[in-house]
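Quick start: load a record and inspect it. Here is non-specific serine/threonine protein kinase:
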Amino acid sequence: MSSRRSRKTFNPGKTIARYSIMRLVGQGGYGDIYECIDLDNHQFYAMKVENLACKKQGLKRELDVIRHLHSKFFPQFICYGETSKYRYLVMELCGPSFSGLRRILPNHQFSISTVLRVGIEMLKCIEKMHSLGYLHRDIKPSNFLLRASRRHPLALIDYGLSRPYIDPKTHLMIKPRSKPGFVGTTKYASLNAHTGEELGCVDDLYSWFFSLLEMWAGRLPWSVSADKDEVFNAKMRTDIPLFIKDMPSQMTNVYRLIRRMKREDTPNYPLLYSFLLDAMRECGAKWDDPYEWESIDTTELSPVSLIPPAGDKPVIPDNLPPPVMPRLDLNALVEDLPSTTRSTSSRRNHGVTSSRRRHNYV
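Running the structure step on this input writes:
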């Protein structure tokens, strides 16, 4: 992998195919992202560039995924190409990420109103990706970009680690591999990612939940280290309900619902939306509350305007179940246990644990 510091970046005016580089807007592990202009139609786009010598070929992996993501929840795909030295991927130009925005905010925190509404919009992106048969596997604030829209305010990006989990021919879940290894970003990764398990939808949700906690608190309890083992141990020790005690109480139910999930489960997205909307009611948050980026100067941070057009309204999830935690099906849990332990375990309502559940947080 080429180092971000050692990679040579393009100067403004550099031309690749029919696109002229305007400025560098971001850097990833294997490539750089530029604002560019199409010299034919004079439209502005984002261009991700990767050196052909890069062994990982992250752009080709991204291309395989982005061709299947035809939705407003993702940047519009424009084209892919190769020169004698580079691969490039051109897509819709969006605004800054939430990690970029958080860095310029006082105390590096968003309001609870913003966190809850953005949490709903992030979850829409994740739900759509899962419905298309893909896991993202690197959900984090820096992979959600802003648009100047209340209807489709976010775009989920960066599919270099994404992987199909549904077989497109059989429409069944792909059989898990045995210990494929760590994947993701240490700070936001689930415990299952830390122990090298095959990931499922639940692991994207853990990363989503951790992202919301960081946006609200300005940090995560394990942010003091980047070492995977140290972060893993810190996550094991952390009392999440205690950490979020000052958030709306329904956030505890969001966490509890995610904890109950197994790798092969389809998330109960409607109930998650219901919990978040109830949390908004609990703290008095409104959909027309101003967002932080609508009242600060983001000129240097964003290549596009972040002010939505007049009359642009959010799409609020509806027809949802009541925001109530479902009862555990203890009989179903007992069926997962070895037959020799069922008779004793079934009498311990508080002590039954699914043998298929791999890891829980405290």
